[in-house]
Amino acid sequence: MEAIILQVLNGLDKGSAYALIALGLTLIFGTLGVVNFAHGALFMLGAFIAVTLRRVFNLSFQTIDETRTDFLGNAMTVNTPYVEHWFGPEVGSTIIDWSVPLAVLVAIPIMGLVGVIMERGLIKHFYKRPHADQILVTFGLAIVLQEIIKAFYGANPIPTPAPEAFIGSFDFGVLLGFDPFSIMYPYWRLVYFGFSAVIIGAVFAFLRYTTFGMVVRAGMADRETVGLLGIDIDRRFVIMFAIAAIVAGLAGVMYTPILSPNYHIGMDFLVLSFVVVVVGGMGSLPGAVAAGFLLGILQSFASMSQIIEIVPGINQVIIYLVAVVVLLTRPRGLMGRKGVMEE
After folding, report:
1. Could you read off the pLDDT of 130-182 as tens digits, one per residue?
2. CA dist 87 to 1, 81, 103, Å?
3. How far apart are the C-alpha atoms of 294 and 275, rounded to whole Å?
4. Which of 33, 148, 260, 317 holds its CA 20 to 30 A away from the CA of 99?
5. Distance between CA atoms of 268 and 40, rounded to whole angstroms?
6. C-alpha–C-alpha distance, residues 143 and 145, integer Å
């Protein structure tokens, strides 16, 4: 039972990332009708915003500390971060420690701007083009972005730790009535799950309970009719593209302490997340979220050593096997709408 609960928690952790990326993919496809293979690159850019902000906070200058000496008795040269110099040692060290959560605030305007530039500069020219053209051009854009990141940051993963307050593990065993230390789970993974739930809930609430969201949903169903009512639906769709970019970027920012960012992290998540979108149903927001968590949990269970001993390599292909089974039995996916990508 302890192993089962632990794998469910691991699945929710993975599923959170899949669901957030798939949610952004579905927002773009549902509103603009564009299959955006550059969406994983937006996840990667978010992760490197966190990396960059931590590097900025760690910028330092050298000073002579007369109170410390080396083995020859000479005063030692120490590096003092500018934030500690400006705000004091305690506040400065706290800012550095909390660089990942602070990166969320920085990522929101940056990713929104990136989304607008991407949509206005490239995507809008492919609205009426075949989906194959959209896939090729956005996939090419993703490769360009990841090569730019590789040129500036190198090919190796860059560790970006969580705040010290969230380092360690929570004892789920005691909470659920099991023996102490029987189910230990990292605090930051729980934070990521909670953060994902808040973002997903906020997006659904925005679309359902605001006038802007209602117009967007109407435009998703019948863009031409909404336009005939005198509503500038194109401007609203640009904003939705920016929102989708922000969701992907925030998912990347908060995932950095879980998996050290590298230049191909976006492509790794994109392929799996696109499978999630297909399984959930193209254009279905609830389907994307539900499939994300479902496939995350299944992948987690398939990674158990007991399962791998019986079926070697099953953890590498389980998501694709599930996709095959779902599409054979439900060609539109779990919650897909009639007519989406069926022309």
Report:
1. 878 888 898 899 999 999 999 999 889 999 999 998 988 887 777 777 777 77
2. 49, 10, 18
3. 12
4. 148
5. 8
6. 5
